[in-house]
Amino acid sequence: MPMLSRTPQDIAVQPRNREYDIARALEGDWFDNHPFKTAWFNAMSITFPLGEKFFIDSVRHYIDRIDDPKLLEDVRGFCGQEGFHRREHQRYNETLCAARGYDLALMERRLDRNIQLANKMMSPKERLAATAAMEHVTAILAESALSPDDPMVGSAESVMRDMWNWHAAEELEHKSVAFDVYRAVGGGETMRRWQMAMSTFYLMLDVLAVVIHMLRRDGKLWQPRLWRDGWKFLFFKGGILRRVAKAYRQYYHRDFHPWDRDTRPLLANWQREDNYAAA
């Protein structure tokens, strides 16, 4: 029987049941004391609970078609990790909205509508392709986050960076699970690449819509300097999206696999420096 999992043998997809005391940090602009930078990461958190349920459901749909014991173990680990991420970001989001007066139901409405439409209009394999694509996006953002020159180093409150780095590390551990399942059930190149393009487009719209809501509630939406700073933070040299642009484009290469980018050294470094484990 061929090995379907391409997660390295020395990488365990290990769920870590963690809770971080982030309530005080969420009351203010915890990233560089900057409203846009903080809102961007808070907006990403808003998308996670619904998005990660979609990812889990998309992978679980095919679990009965997987015979490789290693890939089955990876899938169980993936679902466990994403389940804990979903729980912790739900708590994050509820705490944030209670502290700052944001409307969580309103912010989730657009994403929920898109997911319901996807469940209705897309085949299970298309949903799995979308999941594999988004897992690559989260993996390359995680790779950037765990790099020594990440913009959050020295600029974010330590408990927030610890939480985001925990999430990032587990994203790297399971970064190829949905991709390997997609390959195992016969997923093709055209669908894989098309779903990346579509998923990226809708993700950017969803995050931007939430950022706008947050800045409007904060009374800072119509500050041109803030948006100029935010654009630099995202797209200029050293910006968090520009940093991952090359890695993002690699997904469109024929025969690409997420572990073509060997991020084991970043994981090993995170494990050595993990403040939660040392506490």
Labels describing this entry:
globular; 279 residues
Topology:
Blueprint: H1 23-26, H2 35-60, H3 69-100, H4 104-121, H5 124-145, H6 158-173, H7 177-184, H8 189-217, H9 224-235, H10 245-250, H11 264-273, H12 275-278
Helix pairs in contact: 2-3, 2-4, 2-5, 2-8, 3-7, 4-8, 5-6, 5-7, 5-8, 6-11
Verbal overview:
This protein has one domain. With 279 residues, the chain is mainly α. The chain is globular, with a radius of gyration of 18 Å. It has 12 helices and no strands. Helix content is 67%, strand content 0%. 39% of the residues are buried. The model has no long low-confidence stretch (mean pLDDT 96).
What's the overall average pLDDT, rounded?
Answer: 96
One letter per element, helices H and strands E, the order comes to HHHHHHHHHHHH
Q: Structural class of the secondary structure composition? A: mainly alpha
- The termini sit apart by 43 Å
Task: Outline the biggest β-sheet.
Answer: none
Question: How many domains make up the coordinates?
Answer: 1
Binned, the helix content reads 55-70%
- SS summary, helix count: 12
Task: Give the strand tally.
Answer: 0
Question: Roughly how many Å is the radius of gyration?
Answer: 18 Å
Residue windows where pLDDT falls under 50 for at least 5 positions: none
Q: What overall form do the CA principal axes indicate? A: globular
Q: Tell me the fraction of residues in β-strands, as a range.
A: under 5%
